[in-house]
Specification:
The chain is an alpha/beta fold. The chain is built from eight helices and five strands; from the N terminus they run H-H-E-H-E-H-E-H-H-H-H-E-E. It has a five-stranded mixed sheet, with helices on both faces. The protein is globular, with a radius of gyration of 17 Å. Keywords: Lyase, Metal-binding, Zinc. This is carbonic anhydrase.
Length: 203
């Protein structure tokens, strides 16, 4: 276990992102001695569930090193059973105090969903599965006045965070006991900033 509270974990993550934005990254915990210390155990302080987009490398944008974050990625940060199992493992077995749901602007999966909603034509193959899972977020955002992909992205982060707590009893109980917080972050590709858009639990 990291020994950090959810608030301390969030502050550490935010500080790393500020260093990345300012071009002062420290690249911590990447030396050979630290690598060797992780052979028999890991104590990450956060699990980051983010989009698979190549521009969204979590360890880089939060200036992290080996063993700092347990990272789970799918296109459009879409939840499935493997994602739930991975996040529950990070909470139950590794004791992480912070769960991050990380989306970004100009997301291809959300753009594909917008096109499907606009045209009524679903994509072929397994991309259809992603679109079907993201569609409720797009519709909810439009209902509330959202007008484009980046508005839909923020709503999808909020919906995904809420669904994670609603679906996983392990996560819900940890949040209720104030052992874990769930934060939703929207990453801005141009400036490199991860903005807080939602939070469940105490940070």
């Amino acid at each position: 276990m990291s020994g950090l509270t959810p608030e301390q974990a969030w502050l550490r993550l935010r500080a790393g992102n500020e260093r990345f934005i300012n071009g002062t990254s420290q690249h911590p915990n990447q030396d050979s001695s630290h690598r060797e210390s992780l052979v028999r155990q890991q104590n990450p302080f956060a699990v980051i569930f983010g989009c698979s987009d190549s521009r969204l490398a979590a360890e880089i944008i939060f200036d992290l090193g080996l063993g700092d974050a347990f990272v789970v990625r799918t296109a459009g940060q879409v939840i499935d059973l493997a994602v739930l199992g991975s996040i529950e493992y990070s909470v139950a077995a590794l004791g992480v105090p912070l769960i991050v749901v990380l989306g970004h602007d100009n997301c291809g999966a959300i753009t594909a969903t917008k096109e499907a909603v606009d045209t009524g034509e679903m994509p072929r193959g397994y991309l259809r599965n992603l679109v079907e899972r993201i569609t409720p977020s797009v519709l909810a955002s439009r209902r509330d006045g959202g007008q484009g992909v980046n508005d839909y992205m923020v709503e999808h982060i909020k919906q995904t965070s809420a669904r994670l707590v609603e679906t996983s009893r392990v996560v819900a109980e940890a949040v209720e006991k104030q052992q874990v917080a769930v934060v939703g972050l929207a990453y801005r590709l141009n400036e490199g900033r991860a903005e807080l858009v939602s939070s469940l639990g105490s940070i």
